[in-house]
Amino acid sequence: MSTDMQAKELDEKQDQTNDLLNTWGSIPWSAAKRFISFLWRGVGFVGTWAFQITSDVFGPLFGRDPDTRCRQLQMQVDDLKKTVDDLSQENEQLRNKIEDFNKRSAQIMEESGTLENTNDEFSNTRLAERFDVALKAQWLKLCESLRDTFDEIQYLTHLTDVMQTVFKHSTQEVEKTEKYLLQIVKYANGDQKKVRHTLRVARKPLGQKQSTRDCIVPNIVAKVTEDYRINTLLTEYNLPDAVVKQIVKFINDLVDICWLMCIANPPLKLNFEAKGVSFKSVGSRFVEFAATGDDKYSDGKAGAVYLVAWPSVELENSSGCLKKGEAIVCK
Predict the structure, then answer these.
(1) Phi, psi of 312 (to 5 degrees)
(2) Contacts of 209 (CB under 8 A, 6+ apart)
(3) pLDDT at 132
């Protein structure tokens, strides 16, 4: 075979080899592209469903789903509202029980006559405080007003007469309300002490009403101003009209407080009974009055009470003193 023919045959084989190599070389690249494309579409497809499943299954558990979260919050709000309503009802029930307890306690204390309801504006403690503060302030102003007409011992004596007269008529008015009933009890051989206590328990809340006091107080004031000593003070000393009005107002306010003291349970009294006794013996109920002048009150034994300028407030049976009085002591 000639050399040319051999060379031609070699060229053809080389071309076939190149074609075969090209064919085999293209197969991996095409397959790779198709595989990558499949994987890409698969990842997106699987990822989409995985996200949906995670949202549906795990979202409600961790509160990531808005609708589920809103429903949960609404349920919590409803539960809290119900709790608040339940607590409000319990609070109302407790309030009612406390009010009932306070009423029963006040009634027990009222009926006992030995215990005091400190929430009562007309309790003995508050009545004594009112007398020793509000009434005493008026008394001090009256002392100033009367100094232009009387000396110290004179105006103090006049004011003591006013207070004693007011308390006497207030006491008599209260005693009238039980006098005839106790007389009937006596006729029936009943227990007067028990009936008096029952009457006081019933009388106190009725006598404390403003409508009752509006009727009782003017009647007592009229009797006080008709008393000879008081009428003389108001009409015979040519006192200025302003001072007379001041005295009348003092009498009205004093009658009101004395009425409340007399109908209390237990009743209170204004103690003027220390006159003439040794001041040392009443030192737990009185303090010595600080006189403004150099007057020596010597018509009694030295150290004895000359005049009760301001009475002490005590229980009716003298078993306790709520407010100390002021006494002038003989020198």
Answers:
(1) -80, 155
(2) none
(3) 96
Rounded-to-integer distance, Cα 289 and Cα 280, Å: 14
How far is residue 16 CA from its own chain's centroid?
Answer: 115
pTM higher than 0.70 = no
DSSP 276-302: TSBGGGGTTTEEE---SS-----SS-T
Q: What is the distance between the alpha carbons of residues 254 and 201, in angstroms, rounded to a whole number?
A: 23
- Span 281-311, pLDDT tens digits: 999 999 999 877 655 555 667 888 999 999 9
Return the structure tokens found at 56: 């549906």
The pair of three-digit structure tokens given for residue 129, joined into one six-digit string: 């405080």
236 secondary structure, DSSP code: S
**Does residue 291 contact residue 155 with C-beta atoms inside 8 Å?**
no
User: Rounded to an integer, what distance in angstroms lies between the CA atom of residue 159 and that of residue 146?
Assistant: 10
- Taking only the tens place, the pLDDT of each residue in 154-197 is 999 999 999 999 999 999 999 888 777 777 777 777 777 787 77
Alpha-helix runs per DSSP H in the chain: 3-57, 59-62, 66-112, 124-130, 136-146, 152-187, 192-208, 210-226, 228-235, 241-262
Burial (0-12, 13-18, 19+ Cβ within 10 Å), 170: buried
User: What average pLDDT score do residues 115-128 get?
Assistant: 82
3-state secondary structure of 266: coil
- Rg over alpha carbons for the chain, rounded to the nearest Å, is 52
